[in-house]
Amino acid sequence: MAVLILAIFCVGTAELAPSGMLGDLSRDLSVSIPTAGLLVTVYALTVVVGGPLVTAATTRVRRKYLLVGLLLVSVAGNVVSSLAPTFALLVVGRMLTAVIHGTFLAVCVVIAGSMADKGKEGSAIAGTQLGINLATVLGVPLGTLVAQQLNWRATFGSVAVLALLATVLILLVIPDNGGTSGSSAAHELRVFRKWQVMGTVLATVLCSGGMFTLITYMVPLLTDVGDFPSAWVPAVLVAYGLGSIAGNAIGGRCADRSVDAAVLGLSSALAVVCLLYWVAAPSPVGGAAFLILFSTATFALIPGLQAKVLSAAADAPTLSLTANMSAFGLGAALGSWAGGQIIDQGLGIRAVTVGAAAFTALGALLIAQTVHSGRRRQRAVDHQDHDGTKERQPADSGSTAAPAS
Predict the structure, then answer these.
(1) For the chain, what is the radius of gyration of the CA atoms?
(2) What span, in angstroms and rounded, lies between the C-alpha atoms of 403 and 405?
(3) Which residues pair with 180 in a beta bridge?
């Protein structure tokens, strides 16, 4: 498990690293900060499109060798990013790195969920997120520090070396049990007929949009709005990462108790935190505190969203989870783009907190609808089963029994 966490750490760091060094990227490549922020958008859009395609193409590949192949593609992408002389080539490197993201994480989640005891799926899924948490706690701040002390190219190069090490360790340590990444793609596609799956995926897009509207611009929000000292930004990002670990643990336990209650309550809480962040942002202390609170609320919500999809699509998990990863990516693209638009329209960096709150509130409303729809359908099934035990009638031949009075 430690090897998988290391590999997920590399994937997560590659995804999030640009958020901590937008200023360095914009200066070195002569682009604006919103344009540099498009590196997050491009990564996210590649996850959206590439994830399902890669998953569909690799359903019969044995898991061990699938993970090795995906990580080697990630290594190549980070090498290209490190050496890119222009912004356009950096975008190409980001796309190479991103194309493996959804499939890799989905396979990890499926494995964790299948190994979990009944009622502990939320905690198991949260466990797979530890690599992402560590990327936030260690990867992003260390990447920011490397960029400040050396340059941003060294950050991408370091991730490439670490991912190559993880690839070698997977070859040496992970047993080849012959298992593949899932059933046929045609079989797994049928699961998207279920509204509980599709509604949750759409809610993931909105909630992720809210997350990344703020995440993409969290460093300028600290330094430009809150006048927070740049030298202390890596320390705040470490605290942000610690908040993500705490939130991940909280979210896993909440999902163990009730997935529906967890996603509904935590999405609503995240919307409130984003809105209150607008009030706190001009204060250095208040802005830093709310960034950590935002991190806790964000990572508490993620395990519940994944667990809800997994429970609704238990017979076809791999592609549905990859689609939900793509939903996170689509939301990230939408959010990072929306944040840039908010800034470009003259509303200021501070206003991205309000945009984040709006996205997340819409996600919470959609989650409420799916929860209500699911409960209503379950009541109808229970009522039908109850009536069926009272009288067995022509209903079996297609006629409809009169409702009980």
Answers:
(1) 22
(2) 6
(3) 62
Q: Do 332 and 212 form a contact (C-beta atoms < 8 A)?
A: yes
- To which residue do tokens 């990859």 refer? 322
Q: Which contiguous run of DSSP H or E holds residue 132?
A: helix 130-134
Residue type, 364: A
Q: Who contacts 59 (Cβ-Cβ below 8 Å, separation ≥6)?
A: 180, 181, 182, 183, 184, 185, 188, 318, 319
- How far is it, in rounded angstroms, from Cα 129 to Cα 393? 51
- State the maximum Cα–Cα separation within the chain, in Å, rounded to a whole number: 78
How far is 160 from 21, CA to CA, in rounded Å? Answer: 17
Q: What is the model's pTM?
A: 0.72
Whether 25 contacts 31, CB under 8 Å: yes
Around Cβ 327, how many Cβ atoms within 10 Å?
26
* Pick from 197, 175, 36, 57: nearest CA to 111: 175
Q: C-alpha distances in angstroms, 394 versus 121, 306, 403?
A: 41, 41, 14
pLDDT tens, the chain, 405 aa long: 678 788 889 999 998 888 778 888 888 888 888 888 888 878 878 887 888 888 888 877 887 888 899 999 999 999 999 999 999 999 999 999 999 998 898 877 776 666 666 767 677 777 777 888 788 778 888 888 888 888 899 999 999 999 999 999 988 887 776 666 555 666 667 777 778 888 889 999 999 999 989 988 888 888 888 888 888 888 888 888 888 889 988 988 888 888 889 999 999 999 999 999 999 989 988 888 999 999 999 999 988 888 888 777 766 677 788 888 888 878 887 898 898 899 888 888 899 999 999 999 999 999 999 888 877 776 766 666 566 555 554 444 333 333 332
DSSP 59: T
Helix, coil or strand: residue 150 = coil
Cα(383)–Cα(86) distance, integer angstroms: 64
